[in-house]
Amino acid sequence: MTANVDTRLAPRQRLARGLKYSTVGPVDVTRGVVGLTADTVSATAAGLRKRYESGKLRRQIAAAAATVAALPEVLQEAAAAPQPKRRRRRLVIAGVAVAVLAGGAVTFSILRRSARPEPSPLPPSVEVSPKP
């Protein structure tokens, strides 16, 4: 793989290349994800700016402020209502997180083992110590 300095990769291309090649993979995956995140944040900020300038966002902010003003009453009503079982949901989320981490560890272990060549049980085909 040759590196061409003149060609700049887009974040999506960098992410794809990072997932494809194992030698520069972690660096390219990280740079690709950071680039995609930066592009997303930039596009979101531009969209918010356009919506604010059009007045739509101002109305939404005013509605959100009214909702926040009514928040203490809503919280008192919610505190009086019976609470659902949240412990089960937390346990399920924790179980899924543990399963994902375990799956990643197993995948990493399998890929790491497959990258290492196994030693050959056969004797070398060339004489190890050459004769003068």
UniProtKB/TrEMBL annotation:
Compartments in which it is found: Cell membrane
Transmembrane region(s): 91-111
Primary residence: membrane
Keywords carried by this UniProt record: Cell cycle, Cell division, Cell membrane, Cell shape, Membrane, Transmembrane, Transmembrane helix
Its membrane topology: Single-pass membrane protein
InterPro entries reported in the protein's UniProt record: CwsA
Family (UniProt): Belongs to the CwsA family.
Annotated function: Required for regulated cell division, cell wall synthesis and the maintenance of cell shape.
Protein's name according to its UniProt entry: Cell wall synthesis protein CwsA
